[in-house]
Amino acid sequence: MDQKNFVVSYQTFKSLNELSASDQELCLKAEEALKSSYSPYSNFKVGAALKLSNKQLVLGSNQENVAYPSGLCAERVALFTVGAAYPEAAVQAMAITAKSSNFVIQKPVTSCGACLQVMAEFEQKQKQEIEVLFYCIGGEIIKVKGIKNLLPFVFVEERLER
Ligand code: THU
């Protein structure tokens, strides 16, 4: 038996003003994206803002449906918008934030496994790591560079690629 360990790296910031101006701007854009969330079932709004290599900013928010599994997370709404509208651009950074009308969110909300898998494939496709900021409004920010730090056992199968 071999015991093996992953080391994951991330940074934490106490508040927005500890971030660079461009990271602050991206977090505020994620907050702006909350406005378009359609989340009548969970009352949990999620906003995502993506900064692209062509300087374009793309926003996304969670979109729910009465057939619950038909809804989609904010991160994937934003990432697939990039894939559809700016297929040549690379995603350099993304910020994610959340807000609930039922409870106070006291720490950054991190992305679900399905969104991490999609982020990982964007990295693979663009051959460039993504910086991810998980922003708690009025609180802490977690910053991660590279999805390997969030999903160490990512699913990859090169033989499925064309
Ligand atoms: N949600 C996201 O938008 N991103 C995630 O990474 C996890 C969850 C959304 C889906 C659903 O609309 C609501 O949050 C509650 O799960």
Number of domains: 1
Instruction: Going across the biggest sheet, name each strand in turn.
Output: 1-6-5-4-2-3
Radius of gyration: 16 Å
> What composes the largest sheet?
6 strands, mixed
The rounded distance between the terminal residues' Cα atoms is: 36 Å
Helix-residue proportion = 10-25%
Find the structural class using helix and strand composition.
alpha+beta
**Architecture, CATH level 2?**
3-Layer(aba) Sandwich
Shape: globular
What key phrases describe this protein's structure?
single chain, alpha+beta, Cytidine Deaminase, domain 2, six-stranded mixed sheet, 3 helices, binds tetrahydrodeoxyuridine, EC 3.5.4.5, Cytidine deaminase
Question: What does it look like?
Answer:
This protein is an alpha+beta fold. The chain has one domain: Cytidine Deaminase, domain 2. Helices cover 24% and strands 23% of the residues. Strands 1-6-5-4-2-3 form a six-stranded mixed sheet. The longest helix is centred in the last third of the chain and has 14 residues.
